[in-house]
Amino acid sequence: MNDKKILVTQSSMPPYIEFIEAIKPLWDSHWLTNMGEYHQELERNLKDYLAVPHLSLVVNGHMALELTIQAMRFPEGGEVITTPFTFISTTHAIVRNRLKPVFCDVKLEDGTIDEAKIENLITEHTVAIVPVHVYGNVCNVEAIQIIANKYNLKVIYDAAHAFGITYKHNGIGNYGDASVFSFHATKVFNTVEGGAVAFSDYKLYEKLYNLKNFGIRGEELVTEIGANAKMNELCAIMGLCNLKNIEKNFAERKVRYEYYVEQLREIRGISLFESNPHTRWNYAYLPILINDDYAMSRDELYEYLKDNNVFSRKYFYPLTSDQACFKNKYREIELDHSRWLSDRILVLPLYGELEWDAIKKIIYLIKKV
Ligand code: T4K
Hints:
By secondary structure, this protein is of the alpha/beta class. It has 12 helices and 17 strands.
């Protein structure tokens, strides 16, 4: 049996030679950052690939989300409806903008925001909704937009997990006012560190450009208090190389995912999220639920796998609303489904180059229990 450490994911990388060849011109140009030619090329290529009207590259997914919220210029103390069943970045981005997160419960069938519970949470202070396409499970974008239109709210999707996904043949970045992607090393498409914002209103491009480049508009002109959140040329080149191999990456993940699912479905006490028939999915994660009729609790299975060199992850436990920095600070809202999922979720290793005997070992261990 495979005795190597099996991690939850492994960064996709282009062939070494391909990357080395691609970065060679930098040794002539010495141009390494500040919206260089590769930054511009990747921005164009991603805009086309994701089939969105506009796209802005950012240094990472978190800053992309934080700056997008900042660009909307909400009044301080405004309320933002979001979910706690996510990576801590989503909540941080709201709070670091001096806004208040209002945690809405999620749906058990896919872990996305429960659109039926949003309206009850809206007050005169609500300014936006920040839903998360968690694991690439697509939120109910239509229902969310109807609510947003009715109350004049902005919608910013945390689409960190949703690279390459289409919903009803539309790129996922076309919904809401903006969608934020992460290109972190652990993501299905990576630029080492990186992120992007997709949107339809070009004015946002200008605002993000300012915010990610110190607000500099000319050698002697700074118009606003921006940050530094530019992607550098080496990261952009990594992105250009990885983008060439993205379809192969999806296909390799898909066969592995489907094999896993076929095997896991047979096991009593293990269940999976429902797949959305209108979606072309990206197979970025393999989340499973360890139910009460399984022979072990989620935590016991996590430890057991770890003892056998399989490093699954509890994405996302605890809920962000329960983290030390946020606990008891915001409106108390019933989060029964979020808690239920968070207590039972386990994300198993999945990536394009994951060896088949590693997958077989993981399934064997889960079945053996
Ligand atoms: N919103 C959501 C919903 C997100 O999930 C994220 C990020 C964001 C926003 C923010 O986007 P970024 O600012 O990160 O672009 C990881 C990632 O660091 C984080 O990007 C990701 N979500 C989160 C879900 O997972 P950790 O703490 O689990 O990462 P770490 O270092 O334990 O790595 C996990 C596994 O990945 C390792 O066991 C092996 C593999 N790995 C890791 C690294 C760092 C590689 O193969 N190569 C690598 O370079 O957070």
